[in-house]
């Protein structure tokens, strides 16, 4: 059983529910995809590599010798930083889970407003069908603050079923 959380803390509720998504979808027969995370890591490490190369050039060469290379590196740094920002803001935008089951792929984005018990879930499949719903967090947590995984599983099972019906 998981550890209890403060059910009156919105960040704790959101984090616990977000962390339960991979296990819940695994029970539903999905395999998690890490493409978004891998892309974000690649961009971040590329930015850090460029900064490191720039630092090394500053230490090893004179200012005049390194100036042309520094201009190129600064340009690459800016471009990658803008791509990273765009990716985080518009491509990833709240995605907490991405997975596939056979020929079917789903992407789950979640959010929870401050001082609210409603966990807003957006489910999108590879066919472009989107369905949104709200889960009242107090229905999947008991009074002691423990997550009731079976209740969460049943809710997502029904939610996923409504996406399948919408796709037909």
Description:
One of its GO terms (molecular function) is peptidase activity. The chain is of the alpha+beta class and 168 residues long. 55% of the residues lie in helices and 19% in strands. Strands 1-2-3-4-5 form a 5-stranded antiparallel β-sheet, with helices on one face. Helix 2 runs antiparallel to helix 3 (63-92). The protein starts with 9 loop residues before the first helix and ends with a helix.
Topology:
Elements (H helix, E strand, L loop, with lengths): L9 H18 L3 E2 L2 H26 L2 H30 L2 E7 L2 E8 L6 E8 L4 E7 L12 H19 L1
Helix pairs in contact: 1-4, 2-3
Put simply, the count of helices is 4
3D shape: elongated
The count of domains is 2
Structural class: alpha+beta
Radius of gyration: 21 Å
| Uncertain runs | none
Percent range for β-strand residues: 15-25%
- The percent range for helix content is 55-70%
**Average of the residue pLDDT scores:** 92
Give the end-to-end Cα distance, rounded to a whole number of Å: 37 Å
Order of helices and strands: HEHHEEEEH
Question: What descriptors fit this protein?
Answer:
single chain; about 170 residues; alpha+beta; 2 domains; 5-stranded antiparallel sheet; 4 helices
What would a concise description of this structure say?
This protein is an alpha+beta fold.
């Amino acid at each position: 059983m998981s550890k209890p959380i403060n059910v009156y803390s919105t960040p704790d509720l959101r984090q616990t529910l977000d962390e339960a998504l991979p296990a819940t979808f695994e029970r539903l027969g999905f395999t998690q995809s890490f493409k978004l995370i891998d892309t974000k890591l690649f961009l971040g490490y590329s930015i850090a590599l460029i900064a490191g190369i720039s630092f090394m050039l500053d230490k090893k060469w004179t200012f005049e010798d390194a100036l042309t290379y520094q201009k190129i590196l600064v340009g690459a740094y800016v471009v990658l930083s803008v791509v990273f920002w765009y990716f985080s803001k518009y491509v990833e935008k709240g995605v907490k889970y991405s997975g596939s089951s056979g020929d079917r792929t789903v992407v789950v984005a979640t959010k929870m407003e401050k001082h609210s018990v409603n966990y807003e879930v957006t489910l999108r499949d590879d066919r472009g069908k989107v369905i949104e719903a709200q889960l009242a967090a107090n229905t999947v947590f008991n009074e002691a603050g423990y997550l009731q995984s079976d209740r969460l599983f049943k809710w997502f099972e029904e939610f996923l079923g409504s996406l399948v019906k919408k796709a037909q």
